[in-house]
Each structure stands twice: as structure tokens, then as C-alpha cells.
Amino acid sequence: MLDTRQSGAANLYTTLIRHFFSRFFDTESLSPQGEPEANVIQTLGILAAPGAFFVLLFRPLTLTGWSLVAVRYIFVSFSMIVMGFIMVFEWDALFPDRRDYQILTPQPIRLVTLFLTKAAALGIFLAIFLVDVNFLSALLWTGVDGGTNVAGILGAHVLAVLASGLFMALGAAALQGVLITLFSGRLYRRVSVAVQTLLMALLVMLLFLTPLLGFAIEGLAKTNSRYLYYFPGFWFIGLYESVRPATHDTVLCNLGQLATKALWISGGVFVLTYLPGYWRHARKALETAEPDAAGPGRVAVWMNAALVKTILRRPAEYAVFHFISHTITRSLKHRLFLATYGGFGAALAVMTMGAASDGWLRLPLTLSFILVSGLRAAFNFPSELPANWAFQLSEIRGAAGYLAAARKWIAVCAILPLFLLLAPMEFTRFSWSAALFHIAYGMTLSVALVEIMFLGFRKVPFTCAHFPGKVNLVGLSAIYILGFTTYSSTMAGVEAWLEQTPAAAAVFFGGIAAALWWLSRWRGQRLDARAALDYEDAGDPVVRTLGLTPQ
Amino acid sequence: MLEIKNLTKYYRNVPVVNDVSFTVRPGEVTGYLGPNGSGKSTTVKIITALIEPSGGKVFLDGKDIRSDLMAFKRRLGYVPEEAILYSYLTGLEYLQLMGCLRGMPVPEVDRKANELLELLSLASYRHAPISAYSKGMKQRVLIASALLHDPDVLILDEPLSGIDVTSALLFKHLLNELAQQGKMILYISHVLEVVEKVCRQVVIIYRGRIMAADSVEGLRDLMNVPSLEEIFSQLVEHRDLEAVARDIVEVIRPRV
Predict the structure, then answer these.
(1) How far apart are CA A429 and CA A422, in angstroms?
(2) How many whole angstroms separate alpha carbon B204 and alpha carbon B231?
């Protein structure tokens, strides 16, 4: 009888752990198609590949000294960033969600059992990813390090990459624990969402800056720069150095102590905040929140009224404009997607500023290119696709009005704020006339870019089914590479020339205005009143032929 | 008048709607009944132009709706079977979106949306996201959204699903009022008592085919049974339901 009861309890624990483990892959951000099992294998494979690729890339070289430190940094940083990404994607899955409570609470399962199994599933989940991300790179690492002590080389590498990854996982979990302890209800949700988005952008930025930062360590260490103490990646390269010295640099070794402390602190804060946070979350999860009595604030009401009177006179435009705003600000998937672009943009901005003499001219152009292309891509991803019946049924005019709203949204809510943010920098760095010229030039180019990028776009943003496999990757890559490399440097060169040649500048602005007018007329004719919007992206044909049969 | 003529829809060569024809007249509520999977919702999706038929046509006042879909959509109000809404919008924002998409001026949308939310007892939740709404509240938002632009044609697919008793009573009165205004109303439901009370004409569909189409009184007389429930049961259910119930109880009982 006791055996039966024990085996029943063990079964319950195993079932719950498996359930919570699979729920980690059943999130909107990680499994949008709702196929958690398939995604486990896919995600693990995708995350294991880059480490193996990089280690094979460096294997022909036998590295020592500061070059070894720089390459070590890539792996330490990669482990840390990937674990960070996982925590960002799983941000809402660290605690059981409302659905879990709704299904599991009526069952005869104690809350403490739910807690223990959830914590165990989280531990297993993190351990699997930590090992997966670093396994292949650790296995092949010994050929890269110039030393002969294989066990020492392997041990130090494994310690550093696992410690950095663990620190990031615990740090992110501790951060959420602190937030759930400090804030409650609506305020917690708002702060939590902002932190999650910010973390995503920061991680993407760090990912792209990894090689740059790795090769900057030597200079920073030799000057004992304070930047070394600000960023945890450097602490763990210090830990690596203290376990297996490559340079015997004392500054780096000291940073290793910081890494050990950080690991303990993040672990401690996680343990201290996770348990109370869990109970608090469990208590609140099934409570019905009081309705928010307050609507939009006075500023929002005033801005809406101003928009209706000026640029959004047609009701359908007004509807689509606000739909875009609401979706961008409230859809997790889209927020994280745009944060990715934001992080990439920030990394490019840092590189642009550091690498080129005309960096200040290129910066706004690079950022606006990323912003417009990011929004173009984000608009393609549907949000709550089954709800698009509402748009299909209420489409009572031609497509032009709906599409105009998307363009206006980008101009008002993306391009304008970007250049307003950049304005103080422009006015501090340049004379007021030059700053005004730069802003006008940047905004004009951005508007032209919107027109070009949205030429074939016939959808209400977020309402059309999207098949990523159908994207022409070659064409898209060419556009993006051109955009991120040639566009900003070429157009910054043109800007510098136009600034010195007022007549040419007048021709330029006139030419762009004429082109925009012509484009708008052409679009109006093409999308006549009867043209319908797309709600179904044409997928790939079911049967693919290789085209080998002679016609 | 909304005329559905010889509507057919095939999914992988299987007819889910087979030669369906009936008429919804102004000032009348027409009930459309059938068991799960009988083809009701497919018919509705064809009528609302969400999917294309394999055959047959839908006419509004003698004109094929597909000859000017946008004109038809202007006159259409629809409550879908499932309460699928943009859950991150608030109730008010959703109604504003729908009203503006239908070309109503913003101040008019605001006024109507607020008043409808008030009348449907959703005023205190108007600024809460729809994700926080109960099923019945979502359904009320859908009803408000279908009525917002004062449509001539109303297609209501299970509009009372999840709705509380008071709201259901209100809705029955509302249907009568709307019919008196001359609206064409197609009402799809499983709640036969409500259908019996509010529908002048009833169409019963089973496995994609129309089994009966007449007034409730006409069907009662024809089949010589006292209620719509029995008419429905005779037409579409051929099992002994009491025996099935006994079998279920037998299955769940522990076996020694």
C-alpha cells in the first residue's frame, strides 16, 4: 500500500515536472505556431550551432596572450547572452501562469508540490540549455588554447562559460523576483514589460558588440578602465584568467573575484525573492483584477483630437493608426521583435560612431534605416490572427486609406520621435543651421525610405497570415546589407556635399518632394477604390517541383 | 431581403454545406439550427463573405453580394460563433476600432460606443483589456460591435453563449425591437427555447442539408409534436439519448 502511494507521488512529481517543462516551450514568443515538442529540438539545435561554428573558426589558430583572452571572451559572452535571451523569452513562464492555476488548483495537488515541481522544471530547463549552448564549443576548445594541459584548459573553459551563463540566468530571475517583490498588480506588469523589452535590446546590442568588446579588453585592462567593472562579461573573463592565466594581468584577476561575488549575490537574491514572489503570484493569479476606471490621460485625448483634425481625417485611417499603436505597445511578440532591431541599431550606432570620421552624420541615417526596416518586418507578423475577421468584415473602402495610416504612423510615431531624440545631440554638436539641415535631410530620406520599403505592402499591419519560408532571403539580405553598409555612408557623403552646396540641396529636396507626390499618385491609381487588402499571404505550393522535366 | 440560393461548400471533396437555400426577410428573425458540425457556421461564413462558396450565391435585395462586397459589408452586422477579439484592446478601444473602420465619424463612434457599453453593463470595464473579460462580457462587446453602425442585416452566431440570464432577457427584447425596425436577422443557436420565442421562421440543417424550413407553428403542425426541441430531436438525432446517458454513467462507475 505504501509502495503504491509512494509510486503515485513519484508519478505525480514526474508528470508535473514534465508538464511544467513542456510549458516553457509553449509561450507566445518561443512557440508562436503552438508546437512545443518540435520546438525543443529545434531550439536546442539552433543554440548549439554557433558555439561549434566559432570554435571551428578559431581552431586553426593556436592562441596565446591577449588574443586568447579576446577569443575566450566571445564564448563567455555567448553563453551569458544566450542564457539572457532564454530568460527574456521565458520571462512570464518563471512562475506558473493563470492557465496552470486554473487547471491544476482544482486537482488534489498541494501548492508546495506545484512550487517544488515548477522549481525543478526550471532548474532542469536552465541546466539543459546551459549545457547545450556550451557543450560543442567546450568539446573542441582544447585545440584553440595554446597550452598543453588538456584537463586544465577544458576545466577552466567549462567553469567560465557555465558560470557566466548561470550568472545571467540567476541574475534575470533575481531581477524578476525583485520586481515582483517591489511592485504589485498593474505597476508590476508595466515595469516588468519595460524591463523585459529593455533586456532584449541590451542583449542583442551586446551580441553584436561581442567581438569589438573582446578585442577592447587589452586596452581597457592596461588602463584599468572603469568600464571593466560595469559589465559582467568582463568579470567572467577575469574569472577565466584567474583559473587559467593567459596574460597574468592583475586587473583581470581582480575582476574574477567580482564574478564570484556576483554569482553568489544573484543566486542569493534569486532564492530570497523567488519563494515569496511565487506565493504572491499564486495568490494573485486567479484573482479577478478590478477594472481600470481611468481611460486615456488628458495628453492622449488632446493628441487624438489633434490627429483627427490634421492628418487622420478619415475614420478608417484613425482606426488603423490606433490599432498599430495599441499592437506595438501591447503585443509581447512585436515588442520583443522591435527590441531586437533596437538592440541591433544601438550596436550599429556604437560601431558607426567609433569607426568613421563622419559617424555623427551616419548615425541618424543608420538608425532611421533600422527603424523603418524593423517596422516593415514587424508589420508583417500577425497579432491574434483569428481576430482579423473584424477587419475583413469592416473593409468598406479601397486599400489606399488603410495603407496611408501605416505610413502616417511610421512618420508620426517613429521617424519624428527618433529625430526629436537626436535633436539635442545635433544642436550640441553642430551650429543651429547645420543641425536643422541634418534633421530635415534625415527626416526627408526616412520618409522616402518608407515609400520605397512599403511599395508592395497591401495589408493592415498585423492582420495578415505570414509564412516566413516564402521570404526571398537572397533579395532581402541584399537590401539589408546594402542598407546597413552603403546606404548610411553614401547618404552621409551626399549630405556633407549638399550642406556645402545650397542650390544642390534645394534641387534634392524638390526632387524628393516631386518623387513622393508622383509615388502617392501612382499608388492612388494602382490601389483604386475597389482594390482589396491582403489577409492571406500566399504560402508555398504543397508540391514543389525541381523543374527538371523538359518543357 | 437576404436570399441564400443553392449554397454549397466542399472541403476536400466532402460537402459540408449542400445545396442550402432559404430567405431572411426584413422585420423577421430567422432561426438557423443544427447539431455541431452540421454546417451552420460554414453557411454563416459564406454569407458574411469570410469564405467563398463552392457553388451557389447570396443575394441582398436582389443583388449578388459578391458583385459589390463593400456595399454589402456596410449593411452587415455580425456576431461570430467564437468570441475572437483583439484581447489587448480595451472594450471601448475595440468598439472605436470597429466603428471607425466602418467609416463612422470619430465623435459619433465615441458617443455610441460609450452608450452601448453603458447599456450592456460594461461601462466600468470599458478601459480594461478584453483579455480580462469573462466570456459573457466578450460576447456583449461583440453584440455592441455588430450593432454600432446600425446595420440592415444582422447575422448572430450563438450570440447568447456565456451570457447571464439578465443579459439574455435583454437580448431577446433587443431582437424583437430590431426586427420591428425592419432588420433582417439570421439567428444561429442551440438554445431552442429562445429560438422558439424570438424566431418567426426556422431552418434546420443536418449534415450540410436542409431538413426543414418553416415557421415554428408550421413545423409543430407538420410533425405533430408540441415543441421545437422534439421537432429538432426527430429530425437530427436518431439515437436513444436516455440510453446513451445510462451508458455514460455505466462507464464512469468503478469496475470490480
Answers:
(1) 11
(2) 10
**Model pLDDT, residue A280:** 75
Q: Do A323 and B97 touch (CB under 8 A)?
A: yes
Give pLDDT, residue A551: 45
Nearest Cα residue in chain B from A312: B106
Helix (H, G, I), strand (E, B) or coil at A121: helix
Measure the CA–CA gap between B81 and B87, rounded to whole angstroms.
16
Of B73, B92, B96, the CB nearest to A395: B73
Residue A36 has pLDDT above 60, yes or no: no
List pLDDT tens digits, range A487-507: 888 888 899 899 889 899 999
CB contact under 8 A, A390 and B87: no
Check B85 against A390: CB less than 8 A apart. yes
Q: Where are the domains of chain B?
A: 2-75+151-252, 86-150
Complex ipTM value: 0.79
- C-alpha A535/C-alpha B49 separation (Å) is 13
* Spatial distance between the Cα atoms of B42 and B58, rounded to a whole number of angstroms: 13
CB pair distance less than 8 Å for A291 and B84: no
Residue A387 forms contact with B (CB below 8 Å): yes
Report the mean per-residue pLDDT for chain B.
88
Burial of A323 (0-12, 13-18, 19+ CB in 10 A): buried
Query: Is CATH 3.40.50.300 correct for B2-75+151-252?
Result: yes
Q: Do B132 and A323 touch (CB under 8 A)?
A: no
Q: What share of chain A is helix, strand, coil (3-state, %, to 5)?
A: 80, 0, 20
> Where does the pLDDT of residue B211 fall: very low under 50, low under 70, confident under 90, or very high at 90 and above?
confident
**What is chain A's alpha carbon radius of gyration, rounded to the nearest angstrom?**
27
Distance in Å from the first CA to the final CA of chain B: 63
> Is the pLDDT assigned to residue A281 strictly greater than 90?
no
- What is the structure's pLDDT at A249? 87
Q: Do B101 and A387 lie within an 8 Å CB cutoff?
A: no
Question: What is the reported pTM?
Answer: 0.83
Which of A291, A293, A396 comes nearest B74 by C-beta? Answer: A396
Residue pLDDT, tens place only, A395-427:
777 777 788 899 999 999 999 999 999 999 999
Measure CB to CB from residue A326 to each of B70, B80, B88 and give the nearest one: B88
Which chain A residues are closer than 8 Å to B128 by Cβ? 289, 291-292
User: Which residue does chain A place closest to B83, by CA atoms?
Assistant: A387
Q: How close, in Å, is residue B225 to chain A by CA atoms?
A: 40
